[in-house]
C-alpha cells in the first residue's frame, strides 16, 4: 500500500510540474504579445485570442466561485500542517 501511495505522490508531483511549466509558457507568450503587439506572430496572437475568448465566457459569479475554492483549499492545507 505504501508503494502505491509513493507512486501516486510522485505522479501528482510530475503532473503539477507539467501544469506549472504550461502556465509559465502561457505567461511568457502573453508577455511577448504585450511587448510586440500584433506583430508577435500567428501562434502568439492565437493564444492571446483564445485567452480573451475564455475570459469573456467566464462570468463574474464563476470567478468568485473559483476564488472561494482556492481560499478554502489554502485554508485547509495551512490548517492541516
Provide structural commentary:
With 81 residues, the chain is mostly helical. It has one domain. The chain starts with a helix and ends with a helix. The radius of gyration is 18 Å and the shape is flat. The protein contains 3 helices and no strands.
Layout of helices and strands:
Blueprint: H1 2-36, H2 42-57, H3 60-80
Descriptive key words:
81 residues, mainly alpha, 89% helix, flat
Low-confidence stretches are: none
Structural class: mainly alpha
**Overall radius of gyration:** 18 Å
**Can you count the beta strands?**
0
Major sheet details: none
Tell me the fraction of residues in β-strands, as a range. Answer: under 5%
pLDDT averaged residue by residue: 92
**Helix fraction bin:** over 70%
